[in-house]
Amino acid sequence: MPETVLQLKNANIYQAENLVLSDVNVELQKGDFVYLIGKTGSGKSSFMKTLYGDLELTEGEGHIVDFNLLGLKEKDIPFLRRKLGIVFQDFKLLPDRTINGNLEFVLKATGWKDKTEINERLIKVLDKVGMGNKGFKFPHELSGGEQQRVAIARALLNEPELILADEPTGNLDPQTSIEVMEVLQDINKNGNTILMATHDYALLLKYPSKTFKCDENKVFEVVQRKS
Ligand SMILES: Nc1ncnc2c1ncn2[C@@H]1O[C@H](COP(=O)(O)OP(=O)(O)OP(=O)(O)O)[C@@H](O)[C@H]1O
Question: Which residues line ligand 1 (CB under 6 A)?
């Protein structure tokens, strides 16, 4: 039985009073790798922000993991985010502590207490992204691609039901983008569900997958033609 992790039905997405996307109908199943594409300003980030509770959904229906986005309360947002792994274009690592320190910070903030368990989890997620030997480094000592790998490791810490990646390769050169994409592909093959917003069409061609496009205030599925 497919398990739905995200469902938007007739959803309208606003930025202030402006309708950015109207009548959005999107569904993701567990294990999917789905792209969200579209030109600058077409609404990709607004779509993603709605999913992690940064923009309020006020019209239509929206369910993500086991949360109802319609009428989501401020106090429930941290609990929703614990079930999501969020990866941003600019990595958002804390500059004043090491990679291990960054990951430990998230675990402690989400209730982990046992030192041994924390250390085991850090090693496990860093290994998954090929950064097992870099935990002692500070973010500024890593390349952009390495920092993004760490950000992906951080997203994996609490075994998220869905990973939301908003332009994860946006700050990376083409070769590094491919390396980061390989990491995302690997974790998807290991069962993680991923929704990735991107405007990098080269990646779409190299790693074809189900794709939704934002255009003229609408979101629709596009079918990639094999050339
Ligand atoms: N805080 C805001 N207040 C009002 N309007 C906003 C705000 N943020 C974005 N918008 C508008 O909403 C529309 C969609 O923006 P959004 O950032 O979602 O697009 P995007 O597809 O993610 O673009 P990009 O690829 O440049 O990040 C744009 O017209 C933008 O000007």
Answer: 15-16, 18, 20, 38, 40-46, 199, 214
Task: Tell me what ipTM this predicted complex has.
Answer: 0.91
Residue in 13, 15, 22, 196 to alter for ligand 1 test, most ligand atoms within 8 A of Cβ: 15
3-state secondary structure 126-148: HHHCCCCCCCCCCHHHCCHHHHH
Backbone angles phi, psi at 146, to 5 degrees: -65, -40
Q: By three-state DSSP, how is residue 110 classified? A: coil
Report the C-alpha gap between 173 and 6 in whole angstroms: 31
Kindly list the strands in the beta sheet with 18-29, ordered across the sheet, starting from the edge strand earlier in the chain: 18-29, 4-15, 59-64, 67-68
- Per-residue pLDDT of 46-67, as tens digits, reads 999 999 999 999 999 999 999 9
pTM: 0.93
Task: Output the six-digit token pair for 128.
Answer: 């998954």
Closest CA to 129 of 174, 171, 184: 184
Instruction: Give the percent of the chain with pLDDT over 90.
Output: 95
Query: Tens digit of pLDDT for each residue in 100-131?
Result: 999 999 999 999 999 999 999 999 999 999 99
